[in-house]
Structure prediction request, 472 residues.
Amino acid sequence: MTATIDYTERIPNNVDLASDRRLQRALEAWQPRFLQWWQDMGPALPTRDVYLRTAVSVGHEGWAHFGHVPLPDYRWGIFLAERDSDRVAAFGAHKGEPVWQAVPGEHRADLQRLIVVQGDTEPASVEQQRHLGSTAPSLYDLRNLFQVNVEEGRHLWAMVYLLHAHFARAGREEAEALLERSSGSQDAPRILGAFNEPTPDWLSFFMFTYFTDRDGKYQLGTLRESAFDPLSRTCEFMLKEEAHHMFVGTTGIDRVVRRTAQLMVENDAEDIREWGGIPLDMVQRYLNFHYSVSLDLFGSEMSTNVANYYTAGLKGRWREEQRGDDHILADAVSTVEVVADDQIVEVEAPALVALNQDLRDEYVADCRNGLNRWNRILEEAGIDIRLALPHHGFNRRVGAFAGHHISPSGKVIGAEEWERSAPGWLPTEEDRAYVASLMQPVLEPGRIASWIAPPTKGINGQPFEYEYVHLA
Ligand code: BYC
Ligand code: FE
Ligand code: FE
Prediction:
């Protein structure tokens, strides 16, 4: 294994695929199926080529190369971070033991399940974003969309490699199934809720890359801790790519807020629809939706699954090694929230079963950074309205709050009050129709749609006016 990636191979890789003919043949048989899926379910807008970043090395410096590439020719490959031969398990019952290069029999089913769930989200997001190209607000944004799409495609490759290399026939079958389920399908939907929601417009896309890709960051962060070393190294490298997806979401919402603020000030109005901007209350409702749907991705606050994953060494905590405890947690207690008698109350629970909440709390703290940024933009524009994260119990379908109605401020409310108030809290049909009406493509170099500010800088030192995408 070297840091450098071999691009002379049919499947670029740094795992010395050529030395395992059986595995190589199996993956080469999967490759045309992937390309067919990309054709059928990937970006629908015809393009000649796109200014893309391709990984050239997994090392710390200079890992990316930029150039115009026809999308179907993107070199999807298998890249694992470098192996640390001294690595030991950092947590759980196997703490201190050398990490595993092969799957232990007793953890086979659980590991396969985790890899399949992770793998399922990657193509799902590409499917959700399939039609966005035809309404891009600029060529710069179009390029970022496609960059995210090809990298999510590569993340699918990452999980398929693990399935093929370590789970024999069952793994190969799961790899097939990853191309058979599809986002929003009635018969064979994607596994997790958020990945069956449509992403019909660019405001949703930026919210998705801010809130939902960020769940990816945190889940990958826990799998990077795994004692199954190939999974750990795979996730380590995926996290590098993930940083760009966060950037797209963060700066995308920055630019929406900046444009909205500008139109509010120029016209001295809150409702800026007649000037083609997105009013702040609408931005807040989209935010409420995407945040709450993304919180569901953390599973239940009390989960025996997560306790088992942790003790078995399969899935750790965010930044496990920086935690100042015994990393076993057999006797540790924690508190989780439950809804009892129309009140949210804290109850004690074994720390192990509360680990989903532990991760969710890390995620929520990270989400606040975005809110602070966007509120600073409003403040600097002299506007007093502020965006806020709703309470984590708001609009939940999974966990302790599912089946209850919780207001954005965290009050347990009745069904009637919920019905009455929901149009102020979640995107309405009218909101969605208005946002859809703004989604007119602006695909001439250097131009930008009315509802969003231009970026402060281009990609890889190129100017905003650069021809990031050549349309077909
Ligand atoms: N929707 O004990 P529970 C990303 C199921 S995003 C539907 O509460 P657990 C990306 C659960 O599977 C990161 N079902 O939770 C982002 C279980 O079913 P079984 C994706 C759900 O198991 C953007 C049952 O309910 N990676 O990479 O502790 C673009 C009870 O579960 C949902 C991962 O998620 C839901 N929301 O935790 C592209 C990492 N939530 O087993 C990519 C791998 C729960 O009883 N997955 N269920 O049939 C996991 O670690 C865990 O499976 C979960 C759930 C965190 C998802
Ligand atoms: Fe991903
Ligand atoms: Fe992502």
The first helix runs from residue 21 to 41.
